[in-house]
Specification:
Shape: elongated
Number of helices: 3
Number of strands: 2
Largest sheet: 2 strands, antiparallel
Strand content: under 5%
Structural class: mainly alpha
Strand order of the largest sheet: 1-2
Order of helices and strands: EEHHH
Radius of gyration: 16 Å
Amino acid sequence: MLRASINTIEGGQLICPTITSGLGNCGVAKGDVIRAFADSVALRDDDEYPDCRVRAEFALGRDGADRIAMVAGNFSMMNRALDAIGAPIDSAMDSLAAEMGTSIPAHLRRQR
């Protein structure tokens, strides 16, 4: 995962804001398209998926849209697998959860 904490790449400044809210201008080029398509994949939204896929292909090309689908699908699959087995989440992830606009449920918190 490419994180905003990485501040240089090949000697230059990397500006990598995290997409955390809204579908409007979030500071990431084509972020609204990326977020909408990733959301439709992860939520298995059959109504939204076709339109989001077409918009992603127009904005980023077929390869770009394929990559969004693969990353979102893999993320969703891994989270579902971890939830299914009740994998605990360490409190060190609280800041990441907050960055994503969510919180870790008490029943999934790692007990120390």
